[in-house]
Amino acid sequence: MLASVTQQGHEAGAAGRSGPAGEAVLSARGVSKLYGRFKAVDSVDLDVFDRRIHALVGPNGAGKTTVLNLLGGQILPTEGEVLFEGRPLGASKPAHRARAGIGRSFQLTSVLATFTCLENVVMAVQARRGMLRLLRPSSRADDIALAHEILGRVGLDGRAEALAGQLAHGQQRQLEVAIALGARPRVLLLDEPSSGMSPHERQNLAELLRQVATTTAVLMVEHDVHLVRTVADTVTAFSEGRKLIEGTPEQVFEAPEVQRVFLRGLHDV
Amino acid sequence: MIKAGGRLRSTPIWLQGGLLALLVLALVAVPPLKGGYLSQKLALYLIFGLLGLSVALITGYARLFNIGVGATFGVSAYAVAIATQHGVTNPVLLPLFGIAAGLAVSVLFGIFAIVASGIQYMMLTFLTTLAFFEVPNFLTRLTGGDNGLVLKGGLHLSFGQNPIQGNGFYYLVLGVTLFVCAVCWYALSSQFGRAIRAIGQNPLRAAAMGYEVSQYRMALTLLSGFVAAAGGWLLALDNQFVSQDLVGLNYSLNGLLYALVGGVDSILGPLIGAAGFRNISETISRHSTDSQLFIGVALIAIVFLMPDDGVVGLYRRARTRGLRGIGGGLRSYVLGLFTRTGGDETEPEAAAGLRASEDARDL
User: Fold this and answer.
1) CB < 8 Å to A136, chain B
2) In sequence order, which ranges of B86-212 are alpha helices (DSSP H)?
3) A138–B2: do the CB atoms touch at under 8 Å?
4) Band of residue B354 on the pLDDT scale cut at 50, 70, 90
5) Which residues of A touch B191 (CB under 8 A)?
6) ipTM computed for the complex
7) How far is A68 from chain B (nearest CA, A)?
8) B61 CB within 8 Å of a chain A CB
9) What is the DSSP letter of A110?
10) Average pLDDT over residues B238-265
11) Whole-number Å distance between alpha carbons of B193 and B197
12) What is the pTM of this model?
């Protein structure tokens, strides 16, 4: 009842991107996830459109990250199905989904700490090659060139040879995005990409997200309301595993039910 | 160009090559010059070094705590002995029998690596080893039961080389060891090896990148099985006899010790660990009737104080930071024991915000 207030966000990018969004790249249909009797996610329908930024907001424990894990294949739904470019993904594993075009970053920083930044991204770039094709002493020149280009896009071109584990937290988050881009995704799932970033880094992240969204669909879980308002075309608010409301950032953040949930002392949107 | 990821990058290739060439030269030249039983002793060290290397591949690179590799080693030795009992004495066919049998056991461990992780995986490998220990009792006619099994065929089985006399058998063992190490080195320093390191470090991240974690784990388990099986074949030839204890827990745990002492994340480490550990054990045994006590205390000290990468780790620190580096390494390790909040295996699950107990999917 409360969900799907509007679909306007899909039709014209609230953050300035114009043109029709076209088909949904990634969809959830009636997806639920139960842990024993606890329903972490309850009958969620969701569409992520090409070249649009879609943000999931809500208090802690609302089920946002679980939705991301269901879409990325890290966990399987108890009910419902996930579709990628209209085709059901079934029980396919995260690696298969990644190679198909679903990129993923994690809530806690999850880079390969003893690898350099460049190696982290190269690893992502060459993951789609088969295991036997990786039995070669060095990476392919085009994979390395692509990795350099991606590092440049996220603003880490100067740190290519730095060990990932020695980067500042905000830079590790940037590297997370770079790794996710390494797989050349059709849709990018980002879990709190701005967490731990300075205001300046958040500003850069907003720029990066806008730029990524010129070619890729983005679905992100985000607590920073300002960032969401700045970049998102569509926002879906969650509460207790259910979709509360979906629409443009203005519609969602001004909706009474969202205000009620967020003003219950749950300031972390 | 990007080579292997991680710490290997820091060692110049000419230094690695030079040191390796010196080591090989010493291994080739010293035994005949020194004479005595050095060849026999070194042959055994190399064989157990292969056992240690097979453990290190799984424990160090894939970060899977397998304590059943001894079963692969022992089954290979048994396969060789059984083949000779049935008239197969061709020295070229025998290693194939041993390696095929070892790989069959490795497939089982590979399946465990796909369906389980952490304590569950360790327990599966532990229980499998216990089960393998009982197999000779069930198949008495085939395996000789408690009495073990003698290899039939004499020196022909080892290309005419006598394991207890001369240097020929030692050179056979050295050649096989170098070949096996070369295969492992190529695989681990390739992009495949980097993927293995990435999976060992963070399986969830590697899967999200697009790596089929289960495929890579199976491939590495088979490589480890190949190494252990080669060792089992050579041990059968060396002893000319196999017995039940070969497939038991002792050999698995010894392999783990060699790897831990030498260093689990290098190829040379387990070989050094096996030679060092066995040599020290033999020396202490000659001088004291309480040798097991001293060996036990020494092992506790080594495992507790030695950084994760064993003797090879000490060398790396000494090379990069001098003697102070060794002290610093030990100090930070001891401090780390009191400040660690979680192991590598738990972080990726937390990273995904997953409920590991209820929900972790096979990757």
Assistant:
1) 190-191
2) 93-115, 118-138, 140-143, 168-189, 191-201, 203-209
3) yes
4) very low
5) 126, 134-139
6) 0.82
7) 9
8) no
9) -
10) 90
11) 6
12) 0.82
